[in-house]
Amino acid sequence: MHKPDPRVTRDKIHALVKEYYQQAHQPAPFVAGESKVHYAGRVFDEQELLLGVDSVLDFWLTLGSYGQAFEEKLKSYLGVRDVILVNSGSSANLVAFASLLSPEMERPLQRNDEVITPAVTFPSTLAPIVLNGLVPVFVDCELGTYNIDCSQLEGALSPKVKAMVIPHTLGNVVDMDYLRDFAQAHSLYLLEDTCDALGSKWNGRMAGTFGDLGTLSFYPAHHITMGEGGAVFTNNGRLAKIVRSLRDWGRDCWCEPGVSNTCQKRFGWQLGDLPFGYDHKYVYSNIGYNLKPTDIQAAIGVGQLEKLPMFVAKRKENLKALFHRLQKHVEYLLLPKWLDRADPSWFGFPITVRENPYFTRNELTNYLEQNKVETRLLFAGNILRQPAYRNIQRRAVGDLRNSDTVMNQTFFIGVYPGIEMKMIDYVCEMFDQFIHKKTRRAA
Ligand SMILES: Cc1ncc(COP(=O)(O)O)c(C=O)c1O
Question: How far apart are CA 167 and CA 107, in angstroms?
Fold first, then answer.
């Protein structure tokens, strides 16, 4: 009897998926005043759908060939030795930071050690420091770049400071020459949170590759997406092994899911106080988690990585267009600033409403939102004002004045690749209208 060929069925499914993409997911044309101008969003085509469907049809489910392909591609994009895929940017920060406390490190961080980090931050950039029992030392940010103010780093030092956790805010790049020299001079570990900065460069080199570890998020708002997802990357082989272990239950074994005996001595190890030959698959050298994504997520990520160079170029182009068009409002709006050697792959377009007698940040963002231009605040603002963090054990340098300004006066709008020039025209028109109304009425 004729046995149906699954490859033929797969081809039919592919044809239907392409048809489905055309019918269901083609972006609708932009209608000014009716369509929302989002601050971020997924940008994809039939390729991501096909890869996701293929992965479902393979039904491997847990990390497998797509996970490996993704890690390889991202490794070569970033120019790093290791990429470890995890299920979110928050998980990436968690395992990256926790790796610095591992007993497998020569000089592990200890509870109550101090860690320098900015007060303007994302909660899960800071959370791993607190959750691991270390003490954050908060430094203010610079207005305009919204990155940690490097001139205040010396003031944050103490004999207990052993590490720095530094985000590249909204894709803008911190002065990595300064930061790396500072870390080296004081023997500090450096973790770069690059969740908002995939593709950003400092002096031609990828952000996230200057420190010991870099982290990424693949949540839909970010530069590429797999729904939920993230990654840790590093050039340090020991840290890579520890991060993988922490992601995978803390185990000592480094076999891929579904694979056994990669080390060729699965029953030949003598570790801890275990009997000789205890199955290596069940030996735990770290106190870990399970933070793996599925292969279906990784498959979608493979499709997204193909588009990454185009996404980065579009983000830069959109930022430039907004920057030029909004110049006329610099009396009221502080536009983004970046350093000469920074080549940011922007996450968003930050704006601080200067103190003025005519309008506040909230009035402006309300007007934009009412007119279908999405806005976002700069994450947690001064995180020490947040209910969850106001009573944590910490030190701070100075009064964190700029962080409060960010909390009260800063917001950002989108530059993501789904934003077309006619949307930018519309967004700028809304700024023009609002500022004209406010300042004319008052005059
Ligand atoms: C700087 C930064 N770090 C970490 C994260 C956390 O990433 P995720 O949402 O994938 O957990 C985000 C999320 O937007 C972020 O902006």
Answer: 23
